[in-house]
Amino acid sequence: MQSCSDKSLYQSKHYVFGTIVDISIYGENEKTAEDTTKAILDEFTRLHNSLHAWKKSDLTNLNDAISKNKSYKNASAELIEILKNAKSFEDDSNHLFNPAIGELIEYWGFHQDEFNAMHPDQSKIKTLVEKSPSLDQLRISGSTIKSINPHVKIDLGGYAKGYALDRANKILHDHHIKNALINIGGNIIAVGQHGNKSWRVGIQDPRGAQAIAKLDLPDGWAIGTSGDYQRYFINDGVRYCHLINPFTGYPAQGVYSVTVLIEPSQNVGTLSDVLSKPLFMSKKEDRPMMAQKLNIHHYLIIEDKRISMTQKMADKIQFLDPSIQKKNQIEITL
């Protein structure tokens, strides 16, 4: 679906990676915008077919080999680079970001687009956690990948959207697009401006249908949100979301959403996707230290009647509800 109501703004909406993708290109003729959009979507489709953890892909082939204690040969250079990069994030986050817990994700049913409420089996979850899968257990030699733990099952769902943003960013530059905004399910990267102003984006209210805040997204910056409202089910009054703590085996609870704003860098999109997860999993008292360790200078954490954020984030966002401070305890950290 596309829109050209503003002749200077080309917008299109698509469904990739199991989520809505919005592409906005400003100040280009329609054919250039269409050709660039097609190139981006072709790349997203390629990544979807390569990195999907649960439908036939390079990644499912790797997971199948691991489960059989076999080596996976002729892995692409791209997949190897992604796994090495993801491993560094796992190490830096004290393993709170852990793409190797596919067996837990599958147990909870979050590997499917649609999932049903379930009664968690404590003993089963304990068994899965004790298998201790980690990307540290991969052994990579040339183009061959092996795991010393057959229970490693890699799901890059917390990484791939951000990586796709970085790939889209490269395509925009290759096509000499100076002004664009790419939004993959709430992970957003800005290139240039929207006319004479920065691109403006909203932060979703985790318990409402509208945005809770807005901010300007400067050229080269990216923003990403992890929330318990995105993929979840409710059982016996308890909300279980798709963000699973690798150490407990249970979905993280207590936090509604975590938004991180990332300054320009070579992998700004990937950072915007990955870095919200360790903050989401961290205990309240550990969050400032985790943010510092991961070089997160701008974050917003929304809980029940409580909002915490860095001063740098507070300087950039504007809450849309004037009474937000009356309804919530506001804490400025760092």
Structural account:
- Helices cover 32% and strands 27% of the residues.
- The chain is α+β, with helices and mostly antiparallel strands and 334 residues long.
- The chain folds into two domains: 2-47 and 166-333, T-fold (Roll); 58-147, ApbE-like superfamily (T-fold, Orthogonal Bundle).
- The strands form four sheets. The chain has a ten-stranded mixed β-sheet with strand order 1-2-3-6-7-10-13-14-15-17. Strands 8-9-16 form a three-stranded antiparallel β-sheet, with no helix packed on it. A two-stranded antiparallel sheet has the order 4-5.
- α1 packs antiparallel against α6 and α6 (160-174) packs antiparallel against α7 (268-274).
- The chain starts with a strand and ends with a strand.
- The model is unreliable at 1-5 (pLDDT under 50).
The CATH superfamily of the largest domain appears as: ApbE-like domains
Name the helicity range: 25-40%
Strand order of the largest sheet: 1-2-3-6-7-10-13-14-15-17
Individual helix count: 11
Structural class: alpha+beta
CA radius of gyration: 20 Å
The name CATH uses for the topology of the largest domain is: T-fold
Silhouette: globular
**Strand residue content:** 25-35%
Whole-number count of domains:
2
Following the backbone from N to C, one meets helices and strands in this order, namely EEEHHHHHEEHEEEEEEEEHHHEEHEHE
> What integer is the average pLDDT?
95
Distance between the termini: 42 Å
Q: What CATH architecture label of the largest domain applies?
A: Roll
Described by strand count, sense and barrel closure, the largest sheet is:
10 strands, mixed
How many individual β-strands? 17
